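Run: sequence + adenosine monophosphate -> complex structure.
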Amino acid sequence: MDVLTSPAQMHAWRTKVTGSVGLIPTMGYLHDGHLSLVRASRQRDTATVASIFVNPTQFGPGEDFERYPRSEADDLRLLEEAGVAAVYLPSAAAMYPDRYQTYVEVEEVTRRLEGEHRPGHFRGVTTVVLKLFNAVQPGRAYFGRKDAQQLRVIRRMAEDLDLAVEVVPCPIVREADGLAMSSRNIYLTQAERAAAPVIFRRLRVAGAAWAAGERRAEALREIVLRGLASEPLATVEYVSLADDVTLEEREGIVAGPALLSVVVRFGRTRLLDNLELV
Ligand code: AMP
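>> structure
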């Protein structure tokens, strides 16, 4: 497994590879959710490249950039075991040298949900993902459905900018008790960790109501909200029922596929989860 630490090194590596290349962009501190994306690529691509980069431009002031968990040695071992051909591990200085001033902005679909609660977040995400695409030049790039809005934003960017990259969505990987795997779960205290599965439990109750024919947007949001309100350690940031593609909030009777998404804070930890209602 090769480790490349600058765009120039990554480019040079890429020119020597023939066949299809799959890219898995990550911020490291890897868990089985990340590794499921690696496995998806290993099944389809000749060579799999994983990137590890905690991207400063997607964190807002007062967010957790400085304390974001890092474990480079473990990550490299896991990726090697998973059969990754190369790891792209650029430094912040290599990605954003002095005088850096170019950013990618996707409009409408970034304004809601996470975009509304984390101003500037998606501008950082799209910029870094386009830079990763340019350095690695993958035929496919794999993204988790856990970050549902991110997936839609990247798809939009790929389509709008005529990128020759197939964006492949992958299912959410969960702990046995239903909590979506996340590098940030490490921040949870024992009591918070024990309470956190309430998120997916409530999403599932709403999902069951949807399956039984409930189509009132307000009622579906309320099922999730009510359940979360009964958990004293949980503070709800938002519960959204939105159009599956545009992410416009749905009101009244929901006709087509929808995305039910939530952000809940446990102490200082911000947890995201979602359920696609189809
Ligand atoms: P991150 O390291 O959090 O930036 O995530 C890197 C990629 O892994 C993104 O495409 C995420 O959506 C994906 N990912 C993170 N957690 C999960 C999970 N529990 N299941 C599936 N994919 C995930």
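>> summary
The chain has ten helices and nine strands. The chain has a mean pLDDT of 98.
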